[in-house]
Design brief:
The chain is built from nine helices and 18 strands. It has a six-stranded mixed beta sheet, with helices on both faces. The protein folds into two domains: about 1-225, P-loop containing nucleotide triphosphate hydrolases (Rossmann fold); about 235-335, OB fold (Dihydrolipoamide Acetyltransferase, E2P). The chain starts with a strand and ends with a strand. Helix content is about 30%, strand content about 30%.
Length: about 325
């Protein structure tokens, strides 16, 4: 539906977006995930038409929209903190975009009623938006962006400033509403948990480039670059080097390390046990530190010649200094 072809953009001589290509399919939620400053907002502004002077093409259903003004592109936008109009009621907030488009009063009323049903806010029409909970504010903001029936919804870190617990709830609600309306959406965030929760596919960005586009499961299980791995919190990556334990890990892995700079031992491939060492993909380890987190614990284990592996475990009774055995699934020893 939306197709970006080799988009590059510079602020002066600073390249903020570098040769980005991306296909967004109908009904899909795509996430742009990357650290602050990597060019996510700039890319959204290019898609909306707010930023001119880029190279490459923005195609909507195969047509170049380079010359289509912002307000004729039919896109919905949702920003950080929801940016509701504080002096307007729920209904007035939702009707705002429709009035600007010069719709008839009768039609606006019908549309507002139907949209309130879709987001579960029937009966809230006259409410003061300042008196709503975080979840309700999000629904009003979503309703306001959905009211003009956009073909594409773009959300730029909408949950950015909320506390973690509320974010966890709202992201699921947001996903379910976007899905139930069947909307196509681009969701921008620097938070990988948010991205995992909402996205059908994630585009991981670093310094203006997309490093990997895949489903959340693929991105997590098979990060393509060391940056992606680190950004997702996969910390067990090591320079290829020539320590004997790194050599042994590369030997048992079925993957090709000839072009790799680093080796990643994916946490999904690690299990700890207290049994004796047996097979050739088992390693001796000594527990170096334990952080108890309630339903799980983080442990650091030094294996063989002191390679520190970080492992999350459901077991809560490991002690520093304890000897353990690590099984490492060879497929999860990855070249980066
Ligand atoms: P993100 O949304 O991923 O945090 P942005 O797209 O806002 O990143 O910014 C990308 C880069 O471009 C950043 O390094 C930022 O400092 C720079 N930048 C953004 N807007 C401007 C501007 N108006 N002028 C100059 N540099 C800018
Ligand atoms: Mg931004």
């Amino acid at each position: 539906m939306l197709s970006l072809k080799n988009i590059s953009y510079s602020y002066g001589d600073f390249n903020a977006v570098k040769n980005v290509s991306l296909e967004v399919n109908d009904g899909e939620i795509i996430c742009l995930l990357g650290p602050s400053g990597c060019g996510k907002t700039t890319l959204l502004r290019i898609i909306t038409g707010l930023e001119k002077g880029y190279t490459g093409k923005v195609l909507l259903d195969g047509k170049d929209v380079g010359d289509v003004p912002v307000n004729e592109r039919d896109f919905g936008l949702m920003f950080q903190d929801f940016a509701l109009f504080p002096h307007m009621s729920v209904a007035e907030n939702i009707a705002y975009g429709l009035k600007r488009r010069g719709k008839q009063k009768q039609d606006i009323k019908k549309q507002v009623t139907s949209i309130l049903e879709q987001v579960g806010l029937v009966g809230f029409e006259k409410r003061d938006v300042n008196m709503l909970s975080g979840g309700q504010k999000q629904r009003v903001a979503l309703a306001r962006s959905l009211a003009p029936n956009p073909r594409l919804l773009m959300l730029d870190e909408p949950l950015g400033s909320l506390d973690a617990l509320l974010r966890d709830q709202l992201i699921v609600e947001l996903r379910d509403t976007i899905r139930s309306v069947g909307l196509t959406a681009i969701y921008v965030t620097h938070d990988q948990k948010e991205a995992f929760s909402i996205a059908d596919r994630i585009a991981v960005m670093n310094s203006g480039r997309i490093e990997q586009i895949d489903t959340p499961q693929q991105v997590y299980e098979s990060p393509k670059t060391a940056f992606v791995a680190r950004f997702l919190g996969l910390s067990n990556s090591f320079p290829k080097g020539d320590s004997s334990v790194i050599k042994r890990l590369m030997d048992i892995s079925p993957h090709d390390f000839s072009n790799a700079d680093e080796i990643l031992v994916h946490p999904m491939g690690i299990t700890i046990s207290k049994s004796e060492m047996r097979t050739n993909n088992e390693f001796n380890g000594i527990i170096q530190s334990v952080v108890f987190r309630g339903d799980h614990s983080h442990v650091v284990i030094h294996i063989d010649d002191k390679l520190p592996l970080r492992v999350t475990t459901l077991e809560s009774n490991y002690a520093v200094g304890q000897l353990v055995t690590l099984q490492i699934v060879p497929e999860y020893i990855l070249p980066m």
